[in-house]
Amino acid sequence: MKSLLLLSTLLAVCATAVAMSATVYISPADKSIRLVKGVVDSDNGAATGYFNHSQNSTGWDILRIVTGSTQQYSDHDLMRGAGYAEGYLTQVQIWYQYQNLYQVLLSSYTQQEIQQVMDYFQTQRQWMEDRISNDSEFWYTVGLIYSQFQGLMEGYNAAADDDHKLDIFAFDLLNGAGDFIDISNFLFRGRRPDVQQLTPPQLKSMLYRNGHCSALIKVLPGFENVFASHSSWFTYSSMYRIYKYYDFTMSGGAYPTKMMSFSSYPGFLESLDDFYVMDSGLVMLQTTNNVFNMTLYDYATPKALLAWQRVRLSNWLASDGEQWAFLLAQFNSGTYNNQYMVLDLNRVHINRSIDDGALWVVEQIPGY
């Protein structure tokens, strides 16, 4: 046993882990952007990034993105810089993730069907862009998330050679991977399964293809502790994991959440699993709801916010579970239908009590 432990330790030490850091600068005059590798300049940069390619030793890569000074940059520049740093530092991983995900999600679709998926994302994106405004905290925050998304594409393509450039659809598909599960059923009626006619093995296969994740929240009998755990059961091709840390300070609003950590994947600006720990005191977990009443998909719509966008916004703006639930319900796309569990650690008093509102369970289906 000792020799086996020693061998495993040696293998872990010998596994290659490559660390990279960078700072993103944005010109206030013409908005041109540049990234300097090997430098962490938090005083002058729009964003700094640190990436540790440690998957071969720990099973996880690590990414940390920190926005810069609000005195020198607008909030949109800060978020664009944050996305740029992530896209640049994780370019190789994003490329592999997209190749894997495309095969999993779209390999059985015709080119005409894929074009319909592209059109869906374009319609949704245009609808969102038309509503982004500085006059509403809600839509202002949506705009910041979109600036990060645009920066992610810019940073990726700045680092990629000509043979590995990706268009906006690639990033729509990466970030909307969960939403795609239900977008497909919305767009293609002929692909909707007749649940009543499925055999038990076929039903099991459907649950496997469309389901995602399990979660557990456990309080010890004497309130000695509370545990929140998560399993992101997914395809083997999605085992390329990055644990991410975002530290975003904005001038445009007093956001309850400044820092968050979450399990994620290359090219995703969200967890997808979902598993988030936030400095607001909120912990959010999720498990996917399968939709068995296929007529509900008639209530899905591209003229709404995708689930990943609403989750990011709710995490940023909510200070408790009730507010989180309210925000998530706004402009429901009816895609990536989940049960969300929002644990408010501010209402958990170890060894004493748990206040009302410590746990909110929020469920989404199309139209509701």
Automatic annotation (TrEMBL):
InterPro entries reported for this sequence: PLipase_B-like
One matching Pfam family: Phospholip_B
GO biological process: phospholipid catabolic process
Key words of the record: Glycoprotein, Hydrolase, Lipid degradation, Lipid metabolism, Signal
Signal peptide: 1-19
Kinase recorded as keyword: no
Gene Ontology CC annotations of this record: extracellular region
EC nos: 3.1.1.-
Gene Ontology MF: a single term: phospholipase activity
Function of the protein: Putative phospholipase.
Family assignment from sequence similarity: Belongs to the phospholipase B-like family.
Protein name: Phospholipase B-like
